[in-house]
Design a protein that fits this description.
The protein is an all-beta fold and 116 residues long. It is built from no helices and eleven strands. Strands 2, 4, 5, 6, 9, 10 and 11 form a seven-stranded mixed sheet that branches. Strands 1-3-8-7 form a four-stranded antiparallel sheet, with no helix packed on it.
């Protein structure tokens, strides 16, 4: 059974930092391309970051480029999202996503709230 579990969310002040983690089980993590998405109620889910299976390539939208960093540790089946310079508009539910062999898997999501 495939399981993705996010952790590390919470409340942070504008300009602050948080690091999200996603621990994956049930698939060969090192073969999976991984993504972080986020979603605000009433809006479509937005891609936040993408990382290749070996970790050598990453992609970010302009909204987070230069502030967020995606990384992974294939030895412990974990992906990370380091978020710096957080803004009010970064408030959302953040989701971990795995893509492997034309199958996709989602975590349950974790809330990040940026408020003063």
């Amino acid at each position: 059974q495939v399981h993705l579990e996010e952790s590390g969310g919470g409340l942070v002040q504008p300009g602050g930092s948080l690091t999200l983690s996603c621990t994956v089980s049930g698939i060969t993590f090192s073969d999976a391309n991984m993504r972080w998405y986020r979603q605000v109620p009433g809006k479509e889910r937005e891609l936040v970051a993408w990382i290749s299976s070996a970790g050598g390539s990453t992609i970010y939208p302009d909204s987070v480029k230069g502030r967020f960093t995606i990384s992974r540790n294939n030895a412990n089946n974990t992906m990370y999202l380091q978020m710096n310079g957080l803004k009010f508009e970064d408030t959302a539910m953040y989701y971990c996503h795995a893509f492997l062999d034309w199958n996709e898997y989602w975590g349950q999501g974790i809330q990040v709230t940026v408020a003063s």
